[in-house]
Design a protein that fits this description.
Layout: E1 2-7, E2 17-23, H1 31-39, H2 43-50, E3 60-63, E4 73-80, H3 87-103, E5 108-111, H4 123-137, E6 156-161, H5 167-192, H6 200-214, E7 217-221, H7 223-228, H8 232-238, E8 246-252, E9 261-266, E10 268-272, H9 292-307, E11 312-322, E12 334-336, E13 342-344, H10 352-363, E14 370-375, H11 379-385, E15 391-395, H12 398-411, E16 415-417, E17 435-436, H13 444-453, E18 460-464, E19 470-471, E20 481-482, H14 487-495
Parallel strand pairs: 1-6, 2-4, 2-5, 5-6, 9-11, 9-14, 10-11, 13-17, 14-18, 15-16
Antiparallel strand pairs: 3-4, 7-8, 8-11, 12-13, 15-18, 19-20
């Protein structure tokens, strides 16, 4: 879909569909909605008076101008209560209205910036949210199935603004929205792909494409490379994998050591059977999403490159399958991680923390100001916080915790702080190794974070995104399937680093 910005009166714009908005306390529309209402000889006011338009959240009214304006239809989207309206309200309003336009087979749509008028929001951020919500809603995965006819596509979305002094800000917000939506689409696509397609090799090819497009430095390590770097955890999980593992490193501003360095590490288990500690067969297909952390890091690196952020950003994604075969690692094995910590294997289904351990050790070489890892790590986090609610956050520094909580609130990719008390280390003590890779059922989300803490010597945040990478239902601008969770969170965090 092509995004345009145009100066003028929206009621005069030549599109087949116009989008305006309404708060729930409005009886007489003003601003752009009032201008459209006047052009329609009070049709919107009449619908408000009759109760057919209430302005509540989720409502989208359709008005047919019958020649009064060039458009075929006008959509009036509800913004809800004025005092509760924020940028998430903008995204949801944009999503609701563009979804209705799509269902009505619109081709060329024109919209105002939701919230930038009487809503009182900053015009650039409101424009970004308007376009972001629209683009994220229209995402469709190119599934490998037959279609009776090609799916309908909206060809263009034009943001119309009367005040010419605001156009530059709207264009800047639109560019940011398009970059972010493209990064989210990468993450969603990777999670949605079948695991025989989204292999470690496919992850590496995606990273190569991002590196080429945005001039990033790239390293793709194979088994031999990982062995040279003594990555015992990564190699142990990969032993039973039929697909070749790939340890992927993307670097933005690779040579700029004068800039603050932030490292992002994503768990990249492209399919998780549980290995020898095999999972139940019911819903195992959802384990194609076990590379959601790596997908988010790759998507975020695409946005970082597109925005050319003034930071040195490193993306690390250890990618492999976790499969059972004659070579697979076993419970009771003792594995040596690349910092020489020995790990007793209790469960081969606690594999994500094994590959992350070597990823976190590798991050040390960059002397980072902060490292954030993302992983669909524990079912315990879903039990604690619920599905599609929030990621669990563990941090060694309160300032990092607070920045990520604020970023998550701003983009509605929420995180919730959980405890990282030293007491949790008792659960992962081992008689035969330095630590063991599972502390048992109770407190599993915190004991897994404590395991990862053994491999860091820098300011660090662990995000357990289990329950966030894949959704069974559609919700607003988040589709059923891969959500792309983490991309917008990381980008917001990085943009506000200073």
């Amino acid at each position: 879909m092509k995004i345009n910005v145009s100066q003028g009166e929206i009621q005069a714009h030549e599109a087949d569909t116009l989008i305006v908005n309404l708060f729930d306390d409005v009886t007489t529309p003003s601003g752009a909605t009032g201008a459209v209402d006047k052009a329609l000889d009070g049709a919107i006011s009449e619908l408000i008076a009759s109760g057919d338009l209430t302005g509540k959240v989720g409502e989208v009214g359709v008005v047919y101008p019958r020649g009064a304006v060039p458009a075929t239809r006008v959509l009036v989207v509800g913004l809800g209560k004025r005092d509760l309206f924020d940028l998430e309200g903008v995204r949801q309003a944009a999503a609701n209205s563009i979804k209705q336009a799509h269902q009505l087979k619109a081709k060329n749509v024109a919209t105002i910036v939701h919230g930038a008028g009487v809503g009182g929001l900053d015009v650039q951020t409101a424009a970004q949210a308007t376009i972001e919500g629209s683009l994220l809603t229209l995402y469709r995965f190119a599934a490998t199935k037959k279609e009776s006819e090609p799916p309908h596509e909206i060809e263009s979305l034009t943001v119309v603004e009367f005040d010419g002094s605001k156009l530059a800000a709207i264009e800047a917000g639109g560019q940011q929205a398009q970059a972010i939506a493209a990064g989210v689409a990468v993450a969603r696509d990777l999670v949605n792909m079948p695991p025989n397609v989204a292999t470690p090799t496919k992850m590496a090819e995606t990273a190569e494409s991002i590196a080429k497009e945005h001039n990033l430095k790239i390293t793709i390590g194979d088994r031999a490379w990982a062995a040279e770097h003594n990555m015992g955890g990564f190699l142990a999980v990969a032993k039973g994998a039929g697909e070749p593992p790939k340890f992927i490193v993307l670097e933005h501003n690779a040579d700029r050591e004068d800039l603050d360095t932030i490292v992002l590490v994503g768990k990249g288990i492209t399919f998780d059977t549980g290995g020898i500690s095999i999972k139940p067969s019911a819903k195992m297909e959802a384990m194609k999403s076990d590379m959601g952390g790596a997908a988010a890091v790759l998507g975020a690196m695409k946005v970082v490159g597109a925005m050319d952020l003034p930071l040195r950003v490193i993306g690390i994604t250890p990618c492999t399958e976790n499969m059972p075969d004659a070579n697979a690692y076993r419970p009771a094995d003792v594995i040596t991680i690349s910092n020489n910590t020995t790990v007793e294997i209790i469960s081969t289904d606690a594999e994500g923390r094994m590959v992350l351990a070597d990823g976190l050790v590798y991050a040390t070489r960059y002397n980072p100001k902060a490292v954030i890892d993302l992983a669909t790590l524990t079912g315990a986090c879903v039990v604690a916080l619920g599905s599609n609610m929030a990621a669990g956050l563990f941090s060694t520094e309160d300032s990092l915790r607070d920045k990520l909580v604020a970023a998550g609130t701003a983009v509605h990719e929420r995180v919730w702080p959980l405890p990282l008390w030293d007491d949790y280390k008792e659960a992962i003590k081992s008689d035969v190794a330095d630590i063991k890779n599972s502390g048992g059922r109770f407190g599993g989300v915190s004991t897994s974070a404590m395991f990862l803490k053994q491999f860091i010597d820098y300011p660090w945040v662990h995000l357990d995104i289990a329950g966030m990478a894949l959704s069974e239902t559609e919700n607003g601008y988040t589709p059923r399937g891969g959500t792309g969770y983490g991309v917008r969170l990381l980008v917001e965090f990085l943009r506000n680093w200073a």
